Amino acid sequence: MKDDYGQLISSLAQANDKKIVMLVLDGLGDTDNDGQGTALQMARTPNMDQLAQKSALGMAHPVFPDITLGSGPGHIGLFGYDPVIYRIGRGVLSALGLDFNLRKEDVAARLNFCTLDYEGEVTDRRAGRISSEKNHELLEKIKKNLSINDDLEVFLETESEHRALLVLRGKDLDDKVGDTDPQQTGKKPLDPTRSPYYGSKTAKITRDIFDQVREILKDESPANMVLSRGFAQLPDWPSFHERYKLKPAAVAGYPMYCGIARLLGMEVFSKPKSPADIISETVKAMKEYDFVFTHFKDPDKTGENGDLQEKIKALEAMDEALPELTSNLPDVLIITGDHSTPAPLGAHSWHPVPILLKAPAIRGPFLESFDEITALRGELGMISSKEIMTLAMAHAGKLAKFGA
Amino acid sequence: MKDDYGQLISSLAQANDKKIVMLVLDGLGDTDNDGQGTALQMARTPNMDQLAQKSALGMAHPVFPDITLGSGPGHIGLFGYDPVIYRIGRGVLSALGLDFNLRKEDVAARLNFCTLDYEGEVTDRRAGRISSEKNHELLEKIKKNLSINDDLEVFLETESEHRALLVLRGKDLDDKVGDTDPQQTGKKPLDPTRSPYYGSKTAKITRDIFDQVREILKDESPANMVLSRGFAQLPDWPSFHERYKLKPAAVAGYPMYCGIARLLGMEVFSKPKSPADIISETVKAMKEYDFVFTHFKDPDKTGENGDLQEKIKALEAMDEALPELTSNLPDVLIITGDHSTPAPLGAHSWHPVPILLKAPAIRGPFLESFDEITALRGELGMISSKEIMTLAMAHAGKLAKFGA
Questions:
Q1: What angle do CA B263, B268, B272 make, to 5 degrees?
Q2: Chain A interface, mutation test: which of B34, B64, B339, most A Cβ atoms within 10 Å?
Q3: How far apart, in whole angstroms, are the C-alpha atoms of residue A200 and residue A193?
Q4: Inter-chain touch A402–B1, beta carbons under 8 Å
Q5: Whose CB has fewer CB within 10 Å in chain B, the N or C terminal residue?
Q6: What ranges do the domains of chain A cover?
Q7: How far apart are CA B201 and CA B363, in angstroms?
Q8: A402 → closest Cβ in B1, B70, B342
């Protein structure tokens, strides 16, 4: 797909000395809790509320009104890249999440340990969710016994439970490799070299490796084989500097977010985890960079756990840390989420996320607090997450006029 | 880019005897003024407010939530043509703005007088913003001394200060001519025949003309050369009649708006400038035409000047003239803007514009006044400017049902 919007933005982007901070409260956005409101409504967040009273509020669909996003595409969208056009393969996401230093020529795939029966058919696609320790032990066994050519390197890394990362490093590799996961039990693993993948050198290498793995693991139980998904290489995307003429930094404590930030040419400034550290590192980064992406994971983690009280606490903890940033306000400050993770659902959801934009050229109405219900009445209306970044650019005077 | 939406509309458009008036308050839409509200909120506009109480209100993004539009694309959008697809070259816009009668075979470009140093490098891209009189005098000198072939005509017109219009008229001309403006000082003017323009006959003609201009102006100071931008020909777009089956007229006092109206096949009915004349000419035009585009420039002009009080006065003056139209109501009346020009910014901006739609088939809620904050709660929600025209068509019964 062509990215006409991205090209338009890049043709209008202009540098100036204004600073933009995007504070992402991962998984911000909840559903109602028995009529008591959302986590953000229930949390005591006086600092965000005070900020909201001088800000533009609105709501954003992470992509479409109905699609639940993973954190990868969620952030891609927040950075202004259409997540439907700019897709990261599963293998690359796994590598980023493990802080694996993936190179341009590498091919990465996600592996799951599985169980095969005596006929070679899959009986459990997750091998009974073996422990991470067992996973590590089996990968060591594979590495020790795997025989490969000198011009190839094979990396195997434990993710968690039955999940692992495979990275191939060598010359002229490609990602035209068929997934071997048949997606259902009672079937044999698929051949990675099947049509349309038969011409791929990497598919042949993969078949050879998996044949060996099967032999190496044949006496193990329940994990006697691996299934692969999402062979992918690092994408070649326009960087933040190319698209926005920005010098960007990331303040993010978790590998995957640092990885996505690096993909777009951001420097990882530091990796704090507590709200106070996150905010003070952001204030430091603002001195050197004109765009700072700041990531706070806890609202998502607590939301995924279905723990409303912990989610409220996470939001309150960030609110308490906020004054250091509000007393060192950047020209444009955005507070929003990459997607909703409602505690009542215990999972990511499709619901839009609230946006707070503190910036010059605010119109009003000036509303009382920052939450999903209030933000619905805000001046920004209901937009798409991929427009938040360019809205920040507009408010910072970093977008030229289109046409005379 | 393909215009699927436009084709759909065209396939559904049907003529009837209903009348539509689109009153464009240029630059309508402001930001907040120190908590006192926007210009439209501050202005006393009892007639618009009374109309609003019986109308559908809403907000429109001129294109995207974050892009600041020029008046050219702003109007293209209001007329229902996607301004990202339907682009007018800079040269054509300049010609329209000067009321130059551009023909199909002509090529137009925008010129800026500039200053070159003894090495031929640009030291001032605007030649110290010379006066319009000096500009005129230099163009006369060029015309007098320029030697061109018999089959070519060259038109040179003063725009204002350092700005001028160049039009070439002849056979087989094209617009594949490189801009000579290097966009920064310390560089030489660019060669209009450089790749990918080297095959263009018009690029060669242009180079020859600019070589002569340099010789003609060599003893002048500070304006001793011209730089060119935006070579363009009249676009060949579907007319209002083709797209909407309408017989359209324009009541617009300024050349550029008349020019865009003509581009889309509208008759320029008259060119009044005072609010009272604008409204009474509109009422007259309604008798003969089933679509009237009425343009009022003052809110934009005063907004660009950063003059809040004058902007308020302009809005109040139009409101005072309105009863002649409200007592001769067309079937559908739209009042909106082409883009916001907030007085606090003194420039066009990206903020959405309020829409008032007085028509049959209104749903409610019925709100108290016409302004940016109130319209945010209106039934139309937040739409795109290019949908306003077709919304008017729908309310006028001029769009057939899609599918059975």
A1: 130
A2: B64
A3: 7
A4: no
A5: C
A6: 4-88+236-395, 94-232
A7: 58
A8: B70
Q: What kind of architecture, by CATH, is found in domain A4-88+236-395?
A: 3-Layer(aba) Sandwich (3.40)
CB contact under 8 A, A401 and B37: no
Task: With CB atoms and an 8 Å threshold, state whether A403 touches B348.
Answer: no
pLDDT in tens, A139-182: 999 999 999 998 999 999 999 899 999 999 999 999 999 999 99
pLDDT exceeds 80 at position A404: no
| DSSP class per residue in B193-230 | T-TTSTT-HHHHHHHHHHHHHHHHTTT-SS--EEEEEE
Q: Look-up: residue for tokens 């992402």? A: A24
Look up the pTM and report it: 0.90
d(CA B267, CA B169): 24
Chain B nearest-CA residue for A359: B31
Task: State the pLDDT at residue B183.
Answer: 86
**CA dist., res. A272 & res. A256, Å (int):** 14
Residue among B325, B352, B331, B328 at smallest CA distance from B340: B352
B352 interaction partners in chain A (CB closer than 8 Å): 381
3-class secondary structure, B101: coil
Three-state helix/strand/coil letters over A138-196:
HHHHHHHHCCCCCCEEEEEEEEECCEEEEEEEECCCCCCCCCCCCCCCCCCCCCCCCCC
Please indicate whether, in this complex, the C-beta atoms of B66 and A8 are within 8 angstroms of each other: no
Mutate one of B159, B350, B386 to test the A interface: name it (highest A CB count within 10 A).
B350
The residues of B whose Cβ lies within 8 A of any Cβ of A are 1, 30-32, 35, 37-38, 59, 63-74, 83-84, 87-88, 90, 93, 342, 344-345, 348-352, 372-373, 376-377, 381-382
Instruction: Compute the mean pLDDT over every residue in chain A, rounded to the nearest whole number.
Output: 96
pLDDT digits (tens, 9 = 90+) for A22-69: 999 999 999 999 999 999 999 999 999 999 999 999 999 999 999 999
Separation between Cα atoms, residue A64 and residue A83, nearest integer Å: 10
What's the CATH number for B4-87+237-395? 3.40.720.10
Of B1, B66, B84, the CB nearest to A399: B66
Instruction: Say which DSSP state B340 is in.
Output: B
Which residues in chain A are closer than 8 Å to B77, comparing Cβ atoms?
Answer: none
pLDDT at A97: 87
Instruction: Indicate yes or no: CB of B32 within 8 angstroms of CB of A362.
Output: yes
Least Cα separation, residue A26 to chain B (angstroms):
23
pLDDT tens-place string over residues A350-372: 999 999 999 999 999 999 999 99
Contacts with B377 from chain A: Cβ below 8 Å: 377
Q: Is the ipTM of this complex over 0.90?
A: no
Report which secondary-structure segment, H or E, holds B82.
none
